[in-house]
Each structure stands twice: as structure tokens, then as C-alpha cells.
Amino acid sequence: MIKQTDLKNYKDIWVFAEIDEITKQIRSVTLELLTAAKRLSGELNCKVGLVIIGQDNKKYFEEFAKYGAEIIYNIEDSSFTHYDTQNYAQILIALTKKYKPEAILYPSTYMGRDLAPRVASRLGCGLTADCTALSVKDGFLVQSRPAFGGNIMADIICPNTRPQMASVRPNILPKTQVNKIADLKIIEEHFKAVSSKVRLVKTQKDETSEILKLEEADIVIAIGRGVKDQKTFAFIKELASKLGAALGATRPVIESGLLAKNHQIGQSGVSIKPKIYISFGVSGALQHTIGMQNSDLIISVNKDNKAPIFNICQYGFVAEAQQIVPKILQAINKLK
Ligand SMILES: Cc1cc2nc3c(=O)[nH]c(=O)nc-3n(C[C@H](O)[C@H](O)[C@H](O)COP(=O)(O)OP(=O)(O)OC[C@H]3O[C@@H](n4cnc5c(N)ncnc54)[C@H](O)[C@@H]3O)c2cc1C
After folding, report:
1. What is the CATH superfamily name and number for domain 4-188?
2. Which of 34, 84, 209, 275 could form a disulfide with 67 if both were Cys (CB 3.0 to 4.6 A apart)?
3. pTM as predicted
4. Is 33 in contact with 173 (CB distance < 8 Å)?
5. CATH 1.10.10.10 fits 210-335, yes or no
6. How far does residue 243's CA lie from ligand 1's centre (Å)?
7. Does residue 204 or residue 28 have the better pLDDT?
8. CB of 285 closer than 6 A to ligand 1?
9. Can you tell me whether residue 222 is helix, strand or coil?
């Protein structure tokens, strides 16, 4: 456990970089975290560091710098090409002990969710998972996230331990390039792979994964409890296919069995940021909107003109879903 008196020795805010193992592209959430780290570093008066573990990392550095990275801790070795909990954790723990970052931000992805708790537990520091906002108050990193079933927003600080650690889901925070790119400082570190309990047999992209489709889709159609009958559901599926949209849903719809769990948008589902989000029969409860409120354009259909979703949408239609969906389909068919 880190003693309170040591806190002043900790500086800089780090981002753990995630590269998609299949596409070899930087995962967008890494750039979202860098954008946040850059903003926070202004208030904490520190630098933005980024830790990347893998192979052929250098090709990503320019992009990291565009989003605010100032120091890159580069761990490059063929043994670390694929994510491995034990190896990645031992590296982060060693780097943290050596360079003492004030805060570390992780993507709340399968990788980040696996890695961050292990690092936190080994370092004896806190971790706030699935933050929806990050700010600074009195020199502390304020980690905001829904609590008590999403009924309140909790602001969490870590006054006694370092580093302050938080994870954020993809599509929650904005990503913005910096105006002035800093001169990058590269710190090469070398580690030996430890014998891991995990043996990687095969890596394969799950083409059927609705989570990926939802996270990456330009258009998402969301179905709420207001869509009750199979006929309207079938029309909405046809509409989604015509628009090339991914299908999402609220929790009650998932619980009714109409769609599988991996279609759920919201606090206990997926966060999305499509160009267009269209909802039918969704009330707009906080636990849902937390996962879609960053969509570029929100269009909502609800029969109740007081539905909360109308407070956040750009276009709202007070209508019965079962009446309006066939009409939209008809109009689209005419256009084609
Ligand atoms: C810990 C916790 C986590 C949760 N996580 C999530 C989550 O991840 N995602 C999520 O979505 N929810 C989540 N919930 C549930 C959330 O609180 C809401 O209950 C849920 O989002 C409501 O779903 P809904 O809008 O489909 O249903 P309702 O709130 O019942 O709304 C249905 C809407 O449909 C409208 N309607 C009815 N008939 C029609 C019609 N014919 N045409 C048009 N409109 C019609 C109604 O006016 C109403 O506004 C969570 C709750 C808790 C406690």
C-alpha cells in the first residue's frame, strides 16, 4: 500500500493504449482517453504519458501525439504481440513503480476490464470502472459514474493512494486532436515474458458480435418496450436492413427475449456514438441514455409527448410505432 506521504512523488497522467489485435488499428477509445488526459493534464499541471505494449508500435506514435501524448512508454517485443493478463499486468506494475504516474486511464473494453483490476489490486490502489465523466477538483481526479442502479451520479476520488485509476467505455468521451503537437519523448523499456497460465490458441474476429456492430455502426435503430408486437418488430428489422443500421434495444426488450443481451444499449449494455440513432418506443431512462446520448443525431418516436427521450433528441415524433414504421418503409421503398 502506498503511504499518503508519498503522494507528492506522483506526477503525470497516463493512458493505456489498446490496439485491435485483428485490424492492427488503434482502438478509438485510446484516442478518447488521450483527449481526456490532455484536458486533465492542463488542470493537474502535468504531462500526458501513454503506455503501449506490443509489436511494431512506432507506426502509431504520430497518431498518439495528435491526440495529446507527450511521453510514450514503449514496450516492444514479439512475446507481447497478443494480450496476456499476467504479462501486461507485470509490465504496468513495474512501470508504475518506476515512473510513479499520478493517474492511469484504461479503456473499459474486454482487455482493460481484465487488466486494470489486476494492476489495482497488486498496487493496492483504487479503480473506478466505467466512468462517464472525468474532471479535476482540489488536485484530485474526480471519477464520475452512475451508482445505486443509475439513480445518482457518484463523484469518486482517491485521496490516499496513487495512481488514481479509472476506466471509461468506448464512445463515452469525445476525441479531439490537439492544436499543437508536443515533441514526443519516447522511453523504451524492456521486459521478459513471465511464464503465463494463459496459452493463446487462436485469434479470430467474431463477425457475429452485435457488440462490435453496435459500437461501430453509423446508424443504430433502438427498440423500446413501446414496440410490443412482432409485426412492428419485423418492420423495424426490415428498416434496419434497408438503412444498413445495427439493431439496439433497451433492457426490458432484452429481458422480454425479443433480442439477445448483446443488443442492449446503456449502463449495463453497450455505449454507442453513431451518426444517427433512431428509437421507437424508448422512454429515455437515464440508464439507457447514458449509452447513446453522444450520438450525433437523435431521432425518436414515442406516443407520449412527455417522454424524457424528447428532451435529448433533435427530432421527435409523437406517434404510435406500429403506425409510423410501415409509413417510413413505404417512403424509403418509393425513393429506391
Ligand atoms: C442497474 C440498472 C441498470 C440498467 N441498465 C439499463 C441499460 O443498460 N439499458 C437500458 O435500456 N435500461 C437499463 N435499465 C432499465 C432502465 O431503468 C429503464 O427501465 C429502461 O431503459 C426502460 O426501457 P424502455 O424505454 O424500453 O421502457 P419504458 O420506460 O417502459 O418506456 C416505454 C416507452 O414506450 C412508449 N410507448 C408505448 N407504446 C408505444 C407505441 N405504441 N408507440 C410508441 N411509443 C410507445 C411509452 O410512452 C414509453 O415512453 C437499467 C436499470 C437498472 C436499475
Report:
1. HUPs (3.40.50.620)
2. 34
3. 0.86
4. yes
5. no
6. 24
7. 28
8. yes
9. strand
